[in-house]
Design the sequence.
């Protein structure tokens, strides 16, 4: 089997921070992320359990020099695209061109309920997202922008300042289903593969296997066509550095067992499926590094993100991979 285009792409490593429990310590936290050698610090866009994403990244820009700044991911349905374009351009300008705008359609029904917004079917939310990306890029352009879509309209709209990166910051799209990955193939510079959704609108925690991931990469490649080689592939992975990977994998299986309301057609998972899953990094430092290399060779998966509880644990893996030549 030929190696995928991304197999020769250098690894990048990011960490998703929350910061809400100690806002006063945010500056120290992001300085530490930079000092540890990470490439990107990322903030989610939720009403609870995290700082507001773009203000937090603006603050991070002030106290760092090299670290890139990302949203993972900005929920399109909770923001007008002109607001997104303006705020993102401002952070990019203030940071000297270090922003990466990760964006998704919005997926948590409970958040829609909190603000009394309709939780439209997935296809409608994805239509809005695709239009929003086009609007954002148009507003980042050199002059006034016009746009007429089913969901958004611009009439000679213009924002200032423009982003420092031209034609604009890289756009990451988070997606886990075929339609979302089709959109990503058409629009994204970076794709973060998520799990699919259950019938109740939650993430399908059983959708983590290698076969499913292979299918998703195929959907993306089909939609992207000739531009597939230019798309960076990413995943947010759970990290567990351990000498007993089987026990950790068994705990994952127990946690991800579907309820009767959320049964999928994916079949049951086994320990080997968890250990081979790109959504998990489980094992010794050497084993995890080898899995990272294998996944880059297999799928072109080169941009790996962990949550803040994996901040220190991934560092020796990063150091080992920096010395590996393949």
Sequence:
């Amino acid at each position: 089997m030929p190696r995928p285009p991304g197999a020769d792409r250098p690894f990048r490593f990011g960490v998703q921070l929350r910061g809400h429990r100690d806002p006063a310590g945010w500056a120290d936290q992001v300085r530490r992320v930079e000092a540890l050698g990470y490439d990107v610090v990322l903030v989610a866009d939720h009403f609870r359990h995290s700082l507001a994403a773009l203000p937090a990244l603006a603050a991070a820009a002030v106290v760092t020099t090299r670290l890139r700044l990302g949203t993972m991911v900005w929920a399109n349905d909770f923001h007008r695209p002109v607001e997104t374009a303006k705020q993102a351009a401002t952070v990019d300008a203030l940071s000297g061109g270090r922003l990466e705008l990760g964006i998704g359609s919005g997926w948590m029904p409970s958040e829609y309920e909190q603000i009394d917004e309709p939780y439209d079917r997935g296809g409608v939310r994805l239509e809005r997202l695709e239009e929003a990306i086009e609007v954002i890029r148009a507003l980042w352009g050199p002059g006034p922008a016009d746009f007429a879509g089913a969901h958004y309209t611009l009439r000679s709209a213009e924002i200032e300042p423009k982003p420092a990166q031209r034609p604009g910051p890289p756009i990451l799209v988070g997606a886990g289903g075929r339609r979302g990955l089709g959109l990503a193939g058409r629009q994204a510079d970076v794709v973060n593969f998520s799990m699919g959704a259950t019938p109740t609108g939650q993430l399908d925690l059983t959708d983590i296997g290698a076969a499913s991931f292979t299918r998703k990469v195929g959907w993306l490649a089909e939609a992207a066509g000739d531009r597939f080689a230019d798309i960076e592939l990413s995943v947010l992975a759970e990290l567990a550095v351990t000498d007993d990977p089987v026990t950790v994998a068994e705990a994952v299986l127990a946690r991800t067992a579907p309820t009767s309301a959320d049964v999928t057609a994916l079949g049951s998972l086994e320990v080997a499926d968890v250990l081979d899953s790109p959504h998990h990094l489980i094992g010794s430092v050497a084993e995890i590094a080898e899995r990272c290399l294998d996944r880059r060779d297999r799928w072109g998966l080169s941009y790996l993100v962990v949550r803040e509880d994996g901040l220190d644990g991934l560092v020796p893996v990063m150091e080992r991979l920096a010395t590996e030549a393949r």
About this structure: The two ends are 17 Å apart (CA to CA). Confidence is low (pLDDT under 50) at residues 260-266.
